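pasting for ref. prot 1 ->
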Amino acid sequence: MEHLLAEYTLDLTATTAVDAALDSAGYVIVAALTKYDVETDKFNTSSVEAVISKAAATAPQTATIAKSTIPVGFFDEARQRLHPVYVVFSPGFP
């Protein structure tokens, strides 16, 4: 990704206006906070799920890329629940 940002002219937009953004998006990058709840021993993935759900409903042809901390198996479950949706995980660490 760093190479693309450094070498190519890209048409990127960051926004909180989800409907307007999804109207013409080729990709959706989700970088949402996922707090860890020590009492339930789980991550709160509701913010990530909300964006994926909105993208699936509004623009199902759009690829959704998540850059958030999520539990193992999260995307397999999301793909099954939100079919058809193309969602991939891109961890923020090597």
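and prot 2 ->
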Amino acid sequence: MIKESFIKKSGAVLLVASMAISGITCAPSVTKAADEVSLVYDSNEAVANTEIPYDFSVADSGTVYIDLIVPEMVNGMMSFYQNDAYVNNERLTNDASTWEYIEDEYGSTYVHTMALKNPTPADWTVSLNFDTETAYILSVSQEKTLAALNKNSVTLTAGFSDKLSVQGAEGTVTWKSSNNKVATVSSDGNVTGKKAGSAKITATTENGQVLTCTVSVKKNVYNQNRVYPNAVTYGKSVVQVYKMSYDKKGNLVIKASVLNNSGRRSAGIKKLTITVKNDKNKKVGTYTIKDKRFSLDSNDSKDFTFKINKSDLKIKNADLRTASYKTGGTILYVR
């Protein structure tokens, strides 16, 4: 009886590679996928009732596949050892319960396939012992998890950063940007937007796997599509901020529009406030004016430009592209 960690692998994939075993051409089962590495591969002749040990090292818990190929079904035993300590064995019988018949353009063979799932990292040995003389091919391979980026695409605001990381990579990862004028990347995967545009960030693992992330850098500007007064609920007036940006001195410039759909003429706004917050809900700054006077007919709009001085900002360099705002105050109407 074998342990649960040893299970037969359904549908062994035979690659188009041929070898001659005692004059019989067969297609050996080797690495099944690009994310497997070969631990043992041997084509040989077995003497009856003779132990044939094969040592291999397992470095992680990736599934280990064992493929044994023979020209004719044969009785025998496969035994497994971990750090020289016996684990269990698998009895081979010369019938279909052990062997899978494979026929292709190279001829016919019999394959016995097993999988060791979640193996303990250790030095392992698989030992073959056949009841009769036979030719054979033994292939032992281990599944390796391909490395992957935590993000395949990133949208950044110029002047701000995001962190990329590679999961499942062994050894050093080398980072590179296709356009350092748009986005740079540090040796540990920290990507910084420099100016509006696009760039490709590549991460190359020690084993040569190349991973790519597309970076789109946007200007540090808040933009909102402008609306018409008739989009406002009838009987109401609102203040819409449609653009925010920093000027050369670091002041926060706010462009806003008053939209009147009240059915009355507006005479201004009392105690107008515009509070700006970043994407973490932290206050960037607040614009305040006690009394903003103007004349605005119903179903009309009026644009204004407001400014919060740099010295009054709570956050001097916020990501405006992802910012939000809230307005307060009382709309005044003509009686």
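The CA atoms of residues 264 and 298 lie 5 Å apart.
DSSP finds no helices and 28 strands in the chain.
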